[in-house]
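Encode chain A's predicted structure.
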Amino acid sequence: MNPIDKISEFKKFGSVLGLERMTVLLDKLGNPQDDLKVVHVAGTNGKGSVCRFIYEVLQAGGYRTGLYTSPFIEVFNERIELNHEYISDEDLQVYTDRVVEKTEEMIAEGFDSPTEFEIITVIAFLYFKEKNAEYVVLEVGLGGLGDSTNVVKEPLASVITSISLDHTDRLGETISEIASEKAGIIKKGCPVITSVRNEEALQVIRKTAEDKGAELYYSGDGTYDVLEDSLDGYVFKADVLGESFRLKVHMLGQHQLENAMAALTALIVMRRSKTLELDNDAIVKGFENARHMGRFEVMKKNPYVIIDGAHNPDGAAALKNAVHKYFREVKPLMVVGILADKNVDEVLNSFRAIADDFIVTQPDNPRKMEAAVLAKRIEEKGGRCLISEEGCRAAELALSKLNDYDFVLFAGSLYLIGEIRGILRKCFE
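Encoded structure for chain A:
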């Protein structure tokens, strides 16, 4: 059985928060996570971008660096990356077999089975240790406190990006409850960097950091001044903790500047604490190298075709702001598909502020919102919709209408964006 199918067999155990299963399984494998130097990143939005910025800077500094993220965009192997190379199919097979063998052993001993995400996380820890990663940038999967990545005992830094209402069925129904879950990655004596603006959430983070004796740094205390702004990216002057930098980033949207400031603050904090050595040239190079698939990603120019995994209210609002900034007084066509368990109305309010015309499709995921249901919701808000249930057909239909619109924007679930990205790459390469 191929490794992905073998891992997928654990989907039947659902998504269960808690570290008990991870603790047992990792102990059987020699606790590889304890030998890794980890930067741990949580948040509702922005954590993937912050991870990418830090990862690229560490590599530019000459360090052998691992990156663990979720979900993947196009191929499963993206989730475990080391020095710009995804885990190979061969290595994925080897490490999956080893982890599953120990999983079967723990189940035979009467322990509960790990979940799919826990299996993948353990594979990543073992792979990074045995491939001699000097640093690992670790993205939280869901929440923080009970997330499988939270077995890391002493991260070099804990970074918490924006916090908003998402996954309320799992993390809590209020901002304070969700912030408490995210703040669960804060460890005793380990520095905390946050870009959280919501005062209610910030209070929770402050209190948790204080209780843990962890020094807290707020990236919003730094300042930045945009010098150049175009669809190619930003050039900006950043002042962080008394140090100044002139940086270029290619990730678009005001929120990406804030993500860059969070990443920069974390890097400076770690440099000052002597947990890494890093010169300013590496910082500049790393930020310029950073790219994030599926986040306001330009797939084609003239006319523009853009993809964005905006799947919750904050992400959709950020997308709306970016479109209004770079595409004033234009007629766009949006192709959308989202999951039913999201705050659909708020997401659609932002989408409707972008476009009048939509092609409505659905992600290849059990949690999908049916295209017909989504189309009805958009039409109730005054939008005009065509329905194409299969993502590939929706992409073909949208591209056939390129000459009728100023640009085409694909947005919504990352499960959809991953499928669309593969199609578009083949069309435009």
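The CA atoms of residues 62 and 381 lie 51 Å apart.
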